[in-house]
Amino acid sequence: MVSLSAPLPVVGTGKIRSYVALTKPRIIELLLVTTLPTMFVARRGVPPVWLMVATVLGGALAAGGANAINMVVDRDIDKLMHRTRNRPLVTGAMTPRAALIFALSLEVIAFVELWRWVNLLSAVLAVSATAFYVFVYTLWLKRISSQNIVIGGAAGAVPVLVGWAAVTNSLGWAPIVLFGVIFIWTPPHFWALAIKYRDDYEAAGVPMMPVVATLKRTAGQIIIYTVLLVAISVAFAAVGHMGLLYLVSALVLGAAFLFFAVRLRQQATPKAAMKLFSYSITYLTLLFAAMAGDVLVRFH
Fold first, then answer.
1. What is the tens place of the pLDDT at every residue in 72-113?
2. What is the CB-side half-sphere exposure of residue 27 using CA atoms within 13 A?
3. Gap between the Cα atoms of 107 and 114, Å rounded
4. Which sign, positive or negative, has the C-alpha torsion 36, 37, 40, 42?
5. Out of 16, 153, 212, 267, which residue is the most buried by the measure of CB atoms under 10 Å away?
6. What Cα–Cα distance (Å) separates residue 4 from each residue in 15, 53, 100, 203, 210?
7. What is the pTM of this model?
8. How far apart are CA 99 and CA 90, in angstroms?
9. Which domains does the chain show, CATH number per domain?
10. How far apart are CA 72 and CA 78, in angstroms?
């Protein structure tokens, strides 16, 4: 339980680093990877710079707030895992009260900023993603279901909806299919990392797929999701009216993803899993870069 009676600490350089760590900056970086190219596709060209800045800023604030709330809730299990034992709430560098106030403040600022400078739809979508991440994934599914990241990962797919809504003030099939790309990409991406940190999750009692299933079975599930990922990324070429550059990129990048997934099934080692994990980030970056590049080539 978070105590709201403890005094807020004085903010110094160390505290600033702790506040930044609460937001999980590496995860927020993926906002740039997915949100901006989506805006290019929705605009069929280059959106106004002020709109891109306002959208990314609001989305980053909302995501940072969600990540901070996640750390507040998960501080009991974070101290049990080597990967997370140096987080601010575990080391005592930050109090739960300060972290929660910081997180909620970020959410309020994000909503107001997006509503004021972008539109209400993007603001509602961004904050809704936080609510889903906190209540559906963190508080409900993470500790009880091996499908936690499958369902809960939907929150990470919302930035493409925010980006599309920022440009068009509406949604449609194209952004929904893009949402599906991120939604399907998340399980193989995260399960690959969870294979390496299987012992951590087991010690914390978190039923990630590699904890409750063999590595071979997990790799088999990763292959299934990878095939689905290739299919939906190719489908976006038609739904999003993309050109040859994007279509070829989706096929080549998807084939490479499948190669790493199959190799993981064959080798069944944490090393192979981390190669897949690293490539999954490259895949997402290049796929969305191809979207933006396709638009710029064809419409400029």
1. 999 999 999 988 999 999 999 989 999 999 999 999 999 999
2. 23
3. 11
4. negative
5. 153
6. 19, 34, 9, 29, 37
7. 0.92
8. 12
9. 14-169 (1.10.357.140), 172-300 (1.20.120)
10. 10
